[in-house]
User: Which sequence fits this backbone?
């Protein structure tokens, strides 16, 4: 598909004005705002450990409904907005998948290419790991972000500037966790290796590949991969919520050079929807490569888990809800928890963003409530007209 056609498909939901929370549906008979969905968001932020704010975008066939509750900035009291910049956390892994799988389509990469062939300077014990295994988190690579020295540096200076191309050095002396392909273990190391592989076969910076293969064709003008700690304005403020203390603004507390291709991308709710419709739908990849992308391992989940029952594909996950199937990715980072998902045909999408962090190890009760609400929004997306 040409870049122009791809952009037209992906930007379908951006070409219509967003509907403000609480407004009635359009006069042409489009969907009306669902009061029960709004009430669920209101309850989510009302909990003591709940996020200060939440924004969910439901896009159906080019028309977007916006639901918000709470605030995107405690200091001003303003609500979250569709064009607010925000940290998308591990959804950045789907972007690395989009780069790598397009290079597969171009014949510049094969899913069976190995670290030894493409990154020969990496530890010999890793050389048999394939690109496919990296994209599906079955590589066995130890997670550099859990390495004691890495954690020590971040603990001493949360804005420490890393050279992202040397992040794997933190675990270079560590053995593989298991035989490649034998098990599933979500690891930030995997997508760092994917980005390095993309650079190795093209001779170009990963940031430039993102621009040429993803951001440019999809018209993602507010999406970027910085190395510092600043967020472009306006932005959705992220908070550390630890009652009874007041929420602490941590939006710019941490630098992102230490997570790079595994979690450093900044985007907006609108543009995240455009991306996931293209990447999870049929617009971006050839039928052959998409078949590989959508070969799922049942029971393996993103981090945090998405709605319904999860299964892992190549830098994408399948969420089987009570109302049907979505493809997407989740992520969490201090101050933010994210979900982006699309119907298999790429015509409908859901983005769901809260400005507090939750995962299975951090506020699991909040995560359980969040997944319940997300599934109800997924049903509204799948059943809505």
Assistant:
């Amino acid at each position: 598909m040409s870049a122009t056609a791809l952009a037209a498909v992906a930007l379908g939901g951006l070409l219509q004005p967003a509907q403000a929370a609480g407004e009635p549906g359009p006069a042409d008979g489009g969907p009306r705002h669902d009061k029960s969905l709004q009430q669920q968001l209101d309850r989510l932020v009302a909990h003591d450990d709940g996020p200060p704010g939440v924004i969910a975008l439901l896009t159906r066939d080019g028309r977007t409904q916006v639901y918000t509750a709470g605030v995107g900035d405690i200091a001003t009291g303003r609500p979250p907005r569709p064009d607010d910049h925000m940290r998308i956390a591990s959804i950045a892994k789907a972007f690395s998948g989009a780069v790598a799988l397009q290079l597969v389509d171009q014949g510049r990469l094969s899913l069976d290419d190995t670290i030894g062939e493409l990154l020969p300077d990496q530890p010999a014990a890793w050389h048999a790991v394939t690109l496919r295994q990296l994209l599906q988190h079955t590589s066995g690579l130890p997670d550099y972000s859990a390495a004691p020295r890495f954690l020590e540096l971040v603990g001493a200076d949360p804005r420490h500037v890393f050279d992202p191309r040397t992040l794997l050095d933190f675990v270079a002396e560590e053995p593989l966790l298991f035989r490649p392909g034998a098990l599933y273990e979500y690891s930030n190391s995997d997508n760092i290796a994917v980005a390095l592989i993309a650079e190795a076969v093209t001779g170009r910076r990963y940031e430039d590949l993102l621009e040429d293969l993803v951001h440019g064709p999809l018209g993602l003008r507010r999406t970027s991969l910085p190395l510092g700690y600043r967020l472009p304005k306006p932005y959705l403020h992220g908070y550390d919520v630890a009652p009874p203390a007041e929420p602490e603004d941590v939006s710019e507390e941490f630098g992102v050079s230490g997570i790079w291709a595994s979690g450093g991308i900044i985007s907006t709710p609108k543009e995240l929807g455009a991306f996931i419709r293209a990447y999870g739908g049929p617009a971006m990849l050839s039928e052959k490569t998409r078949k590989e992308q959508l070969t799922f391992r049942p029971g393996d989940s993103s981090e945090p888990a998405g709605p319904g029952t999860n299964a892992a594909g190549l830098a994408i996950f399948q969420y089987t809800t009570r109302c049907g199937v979505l493809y997407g990715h989740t992520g969490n980072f201090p101050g933010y928890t994210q979900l982006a998902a699309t119907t298999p045909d790429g015509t409908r999408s859901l983005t769901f963003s809260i400005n507090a962090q939750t995962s299975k190890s951090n506020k699991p009760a909040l995560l359980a409530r969040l997944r319940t609400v997300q599934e109800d929004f997924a049903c509204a997306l799948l059943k809505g007209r």
About this structure: DSSP finds twelve helices and twelve strands in the chain. The radius of gyration is 20 Å. The first strand starts at residue 53 and ends at 60. Residues 259 and 353 are 19 Å apart (CA to CA).
